[in-house]
């Protein structure tokens, strides 16, 4: 083969390779953040992939989102090492007998907050949602106190110690805020964007709400509405310890890396297949199981309303630290501090 023919063959090979890799270079990988996050070629790539294990589709929640807007709601920032200094790591005995399948909604049916699917809107407040949701669930599990706590308090009042509010934050700092400052009820300080992103004027993004430290409801006092955690801790990064923590104490907050294909998740056990890195996201882990195809998974509740995923939930492969999801697990225990337990039926397993 002559040099000219060889060069032509190599050029043809490059063109063909690029054509095959086309779906991998969709959206962000092309450097165009103004494109829509939902893309037909990504859906096609997932649904035609023989080993995907999950189904992709057009999620109505992101119908009008650009890649730039999608990136903004992924509000978990890389945690500075200094913030983790002194934070204990929780482990559990290997002798704990764990079920093959577990769902916190079924385990604690009287705790309605566990099954709530919320909406963070256009604010990068996932780090706060994941923390608040887990703490209120644990108030019910351990103290028999059914209560909705305020994401708004955390986003607007924690300040630079937690990050940058709607521009992202650190999950472990949210739990430290609970221990130090407590968090008021959602009734006292409701989330500033009650309509999510279903209304006009919610783009490109909301700015962080102002911290007012004043209840919206008359006759409620800010300091009296504060609910605290006893502690803030990491959970050791292996499936047994994470499962034992959820089984023993309730849902935990987890952080993971989100890729373009995750926006298209509809059902099944997610694993990253295609698309570029979008950012870090925090959600609530509520259980685990094994699919009919034999894939072990984690069960999680997202805060992108029920117009995304499997009615707001998703499963992700368990035991391989997929997207780093087993490496960023944090939690804390509820405290009876500032609470008059005579008004509640719980026995008070948490301590001051």
Automatic annotation (TrEMBL):
The keyword Signal applies. Gene3D superfamilies: Cysteine proteinases. The keyword Coiled coil does not apply. Residues 1-21 form the signal peptide. Keywords: Disulfide bond, Glycoprotein, Hydrolase, Protease, Signal, Thiol protease. Residues 98-333 form the Peptidase C1A papain C-terminal domain. One of its GO terms (biological process) is proteolysis. It comes from the Eukaryota. SUPFAM superfamilies: Cysteine proteinases. One of its GO terms (molecular function) is cysteine-type endopeptidase activity. Belongs to the peptidase C1 family. This is Peptidase C1A papain C-terminal domain-containing protein. It comes from Lolium multiflorum (Italian ryegrass). The lineage of its organism: Eukaryota, Viridiplantae, Streptophyta, Embryophyta, Tracheophyta.
